[in-house]
Fold this protein.
Amino acid sequence: MAAEKQVKAEKKATVADPEAASIDAATQQMIRRAQELGVETVFDRAVTMKPCNIGTQGICCKNCGMGPCRLPLPKGGIQGEDTRKGLCGASPNTIAARNFIRMIAGGAAAHSDHGRAVAEVFMTAARKETDAYRIKDTHKLRQVAKWLDVDTEVEVDGEMKDRDLDELAVEVGEKALAEWGKAEGEVLFAKRAPKARYEIWKKQGVVPRNIDREIVEIMHRTHIGVDQDYKNLMKQGTRAAIGDGWGGSMLATELQDILFGTPYPLSSEANLGVMKADMVNLVIHGHEPVLSEIIVAVAGSQKWQDYAKSKGAKGIQLSGICCTANEVLQRHGVPPCGTFLQQELAIITGACDAMVVDIQCIFQNLANVAKCFHTKLITTHPIARMEQDNVIHIEFDEHHAMEDAEKIVKLAVDNYGNRKTEVMIPKQKASIIAGFGVESIEYHLGGTFRGSYYTLNDNIINGRIRGIGGVVGCNNARTRHNEGHIEVVKELIKNDVIVLTTGCNAIACAMEGLLTPETAGVFCGPGLAEVCETVGIPPVLHLGSCVDNSRILLAAAEVVKAGGLGNDISDLPAAGSAPEWMSEKAISIGHYFVASGVYTVFGVTLPVTGAPVFQDYLFEEFEKMYGGMWDLEVDPIKHARKMIAHIDKKRKALGIDKARERILVDMDSRRAMESA
């Protein structure tokens, strides 16, 4: 009996408790099923593998062969002078700053390489080298052309006329691609920030010169024996982060909109329950939508739907994971079946006939899980392959995009009859409204007649909307899946803070049912509920994938432009949050929001706590230079309340902290506002 108890205790210690691992019932069900089948998941590995405490504090240096040098905080904290140093003499501040900006470099590189790939496909379409892609949003093409210093008109017989769209698209593509490596000048989209913000960047010397250079310079500066001043290191980290948010990421978003269509609100569903037992389930996972756009077109065609029926299925069900899911959701309504931490679970349903992956946030363990089921795992990108022999590689080429997509869809359909495990798809799924962006927010909250963000600003000024919360980011297996995301968002909307969301936070909110207009009457404070009910929007607006955080930057710039809430993003009653972050991309995103003037709170941990002087620099001194700063709060409710306190501080500074009497505006008053 004692031996039996010991075995049970050991088993319990090596697998996750489903309820402790996630707040989501579908996820809990699939964790249990995986454990019954003997399939290890990320939730189990999080139990057996503990993080390095010194590494999480940011004070382990492995940038040369003499290390790793580990500089743990002494018990009782620093008393007097901090004498810790690595073999080369590097201080904790230098080590933490080097590690921090290397994370910025990694995140900025991931986003920016994504943007470059989109720009290359854009050029292929502009030059008519492929039939798979064409320019869909010509209005945005002309808008973006102006920011890239491309003339949209040409003089003909003394009159200015619109340029030929094909010619315009080629020049836009050329100017966009040059942003990654031009020899002179600065990133052109930096001037899309409010003028006051741009002037701060100029004063601080952090306007990016080009996208790639800033990333490369970080790697040079953090080599042993180069930059050893944490303030100077952070200056370069800031320049690279701005190059991500206002450069590579923003170019990715804008070019995707031009090429694939600008999103507008649409309905869909979310969670593992969107998968269907009697259909071919093809799951798209990753971050780059250039292939997934074509897969959506192929899978939805009559030819391939009929082919699926010929194999005994009722059709093809597409669903997505991570930010590729968000991209195809935003434009086509393809339902997301899960967040980052649910990727293994989609296969464990036994219904996933194929999973096609591109880049970023893809578990190598997917291959091991797929071996336990019939699922075909297909990699598609030349820089993202797996070593396991059961992984199929179909390398995507935009010149043969349709052919590549058809190969993938055929593999999935042909595999439908090979299911070898009982299908178990959780019932949980939620209705959602997604597809928001700068343009659709303007339409819904700005009004068709005024055509600006005035109405949004007016409702912030009059107090119906307390402020704006940008809540974004990943899942992290070191915390309870989705709990931080949901508790932060619910606390914000309860206090009349409208939430703009992207990435896995957006999918988590979708799964929780927070992306419907009906949500407002249940979870929101009275002011935000009134606005949502009046204009018919959710209190949580899904703006897309993680590169689409640039939409939040542009929305903030539009709020400043509309007037009444200061002259810069740092004046706005707004705050940012990543409750469950885990990737280097999140650090880059967080830092470009801070550099843009946004108070930004992270959950879970932040790799700076082992260097108190450097932490204070980020948490306090940065606000004096940029108007934005970092903060860390693990508790989700305290996390949200810190954001609300900052929003209230900004409302007070603007003189709008007291509720205004609501009056009926007559026509004379309206005319006065129009002429102002």
In short: Residues 181 and 213 are 7 Å apart (CA to CA). The chain has three domains: 92-152+162-260, 272-418, 436-654.
